[in-house]
Amino acid sequence: MPVFEQLQQRRLQLGKTLQNLADVSGMNVPQVSNVLSGKLDSRLSTYEALAGAMDASLVLIPKHLLPEVARLLSGKAIGPDDVPSTVDRLLGGLN
């Protein structure tokens, strides 16, 4: 998924308006709209500013690590499916 789509998805999840993002990022509303719709090919610093306005960070992940990162983000442990995740093991130790 392109960066602009991820930022747009994050905006919708947070319920932020274009005006909210414009105020925090220092951009104007039409520019924010154009960036988030993919109509404007922006600099990395523009994407970083919008991500920061939504309490997020851009991360560059080498392609060969994408499967591991996707699995980690899904909450699954790396390795066999029947092994509890680190979070499950830590929370299980608290009971």
UniProtKB/TrEMBL annotation:
Gene Ontology MF annotations: DNA binding
PROSITE patterns (UniProt xref): HTH_CROC1
Name of the featured protein: Helix-turn-helix domain-containing protein
Alphabetical list of InterPro entries matching this protein: Cro/C1-type_HTH, Lambda_DNA-bd_dom_sf
Residue ranges annotated for the HTH cro/C1-type domain, each copy included: 7-61
Organism: Duganella vulcania
Domain of life: Bacteria
